[in-house]
Write a structure and sequence with these properties.
The complex is a heterodimer of chains A (265) and B (266). Chain A is 81% helix and 0% strand. The mean pLDDT of chain A is 90. The chains are: A mainly alpha (265), B alpha/beta (266).
Chain lengths: 265, 266
């Protein structure tokens, strides 16, 4: 097997390992659009990183955290519905990212790669960032797992029972930001959220506990990466979208299997 | 008398330009059951939130006994079907659970058979009992209940109130709860506070029910309430275990209630 393919596999599986459990929380907490807004902001992070000559991954994390904090601080406002606010911010940030990218004269920004991912071009440095960031995010998520689950079920109940609500939420935001930053290379701005929510949703019919759902989401994500890369090689199609498509097919199959086995209509 | 669990002095809470609570004072003593009644928007839930430290007050003070452990039953708890959560796992979210103690408490609240059920399929009454079990696992000094019979059918409501009173007798915690219907809670409460952004009146259930301010707030419902109360009073005494229908007209409610009533281990 070629080196680039091995690196792509390691990167994809590395992302799947953290995207699975994190995606479960995104689904449980109905934060798909929140995640999408942060992902759309990531392009601005890339451009900012190039402009200021700092590591793009680091710049993405910083931009995502700032946007997350803005969103959280605006949750109290009652003028606009939540999805309107998210829609405004998501597309404003994407537009900002595109404009700033165009203004950078020294480096030509490969927009397609950032928007849709370029997993086959992952190099060793990228790999270190992906695995390091992924491991850090996974550790942090394990650390806040129980308090975050308690908050997801009922936030005030959790607060009364002594869960450090604010700290847990901040760590959670940070984990989302890190995962978006490391997943950028694999599937790109526009497809990151699918890597979070599709494996989690596909795992749901077969899970009886939150933890098994997270594990099954990891398995689904890994199969999607392997299947997507395989399809990409076989039929010469773009790898990131292929991964997302394989995950989607698994989601649909899971629904069908579940329906047949339980006899639901 | 031992130290108060919670003492609130001249508490005011503001939301925007409006005061949702003004100048509220109250004391919760150990083993005492206090019921807060009042119309919608009276600030009942706000008062509970403020005493648990969930929201900031504009002025006034909330003194909690040092180390006070609160068991809280929120008004609503909806588990999204996408989150797979059994009762067993739900109970483990609050504190690390000892299995024997969990089993004992589930029997005490009358639902030991629900332990492996998904949270999403519980009925209103079952959910209340599971929430009670979770609160009791913390071995609380004070139980705070926001509309503890919301989503429970009328027959089951009396049972829940009786259960709360019985648990208080056994465990010795204080209780503060919010209720819409004074007549349903009367037999199971020591002290009533009638709240409408300020404390209109307070005292024993009988005293509050006769108080002019209470009558002014609930004027229309008082007469009807008294009739209903008399009915449920009879019924409450029969309610440990199986329920004996009292009136023809009410038999429908009793049928509904049977699911909860059959599982008592009292």
């Amino acid at each position: 097997m070629d080196d680039f393919l091995i690196r792509a596999l390691i990167a994809g599986v590395g992302v799947a390992f953290v995207a699975g459990p994190l995606g479960c929380f995104v689904v449980w907490r109905r934060m798909a659009y929140f995640g999408a807004t942060l992902a759309h902001s990531a392009l601005f992070g890339v451009a900012l990183g190039l402009l200021l000559e700092i590591n793009p991954t680091l710049a993405i994390v910083v931009v995502c955290v700032v946007v997350a904090l803005i969103l959280v601080s605006m949750q109290g406002q009652r003028q606009l519905a939540g999805d309107t606010l998210l829609g405004i911010l998501a597309h404003a940030m994407l537009a900002l990212g595109l404009v700033v990218s165009a203004l950078i004269e020294t480096v030509r920004v490969d927009l397609m790669a950032w928007l849709f991912g370029d997993i086959l071009a992952v190099n060793n440095t990228d790999l270190i960032w992906i695995l390091g960031g992924g491991a850090l995010a996974l550790l942090a998520l394990a650390f806040i797992w129980r308090p975050l689950l308690a908050m997801t079920v009922h936030e005030e109940l959790a607060a009364v029972e002594g869960v450090p609500v604010v700290r847990t939420r901040l760590v959670f935001m940070l984990v989302i930001a890190i995962v978006i930053a490391v997943a950028m290379k694999v599937v790109g701005v526009l497809l990151i959220v699918s890597l979070l929510i599709i494996p989690a949703a596909a795992a749901r019919p077969f899970a009886r506990t939150p933890e098994t759902m997270a594990l099954l989401a990891i398995v689904t994500g890994c199969i999607a990466v392997v299947g997507g890369l395989g399809s990409s090689m076989t039929w010469d199609i773009p790898a990131g979208p292929a991964i997302v498509l394989v995950a989607s097919v698994m989601f649909v199959m899971g629904m069908l299997i579940r329906r047949v086995s339980t006899g639901q209509d | 008398m031992s130290e108060a669990l919670i003492r609130i002095e001249k508490l005011s809470v503001r939301r925007g330009d409006m005061f949702t609570l003004s100048n509220v004072s109250l004391t919760i003593n150990p083993r005492e059951i206090i019921t807060i009644v009042g119309p919608n928007g009276a600030g009942k839930s706000t008062l509970l939130r403020a005493m648990m430290g969930l929201i900031k007050q504009e002025s006034g003070q909330v003194f909690r006994k040092p180390g006070l452990k609160i068991g809280y039953l929120p008004q609503t708890l909806t588990i999204d079907p996408v989150l797979p959560l059994t009762v067993r796992r739900f109970l483990s979210l609050g504190v690390s659970v000892n299995k024997g103690r969990r089993t004992a408490l589930m029997e005490e609240v009358g639902v030991p058979h629900l332990i492996d059920r998904p949270m999403g399929v519980l009925s209103g009454g079952e959910l209340r009992r599971v929430l009670l079990a979770r609160a009791l696992l913390r071995d609380p000094d004070l139980l705070v209940l926001d509309e503890p019979v919301q989503g429970v059918d009328v027959g089951g409501q009396v049972e829940i109130y009786d259960l709360i009173a019985r648990l208080r007798d056994e465990h010795g915690f204080g209780v503060i709860m919010v209720s819409h219907d004074l007549h349903l809670v009367m037999s199971a409460t020591d002290h009533v506070i009638c709240l409408n952004q300020h404390v209109c009146c307070d005292g024993t259930p009988e005293a509050v029910q006769a108080h002019p301010e209470y009558v002014a707030l609930f004027g229309d419902r008082v007469a009807a309430g008294l009739a209903l109360y008399a009915h449920h009073h009879d019924h409450a005494h029969d309610a440990h275990g199986n329920i004996v229908p009292v009136g023809e007209a009410e038999s429908h409610n009793h049928d509904h209630d049977h699911g909860d009533g059959g599982h008592h281990h009292g």
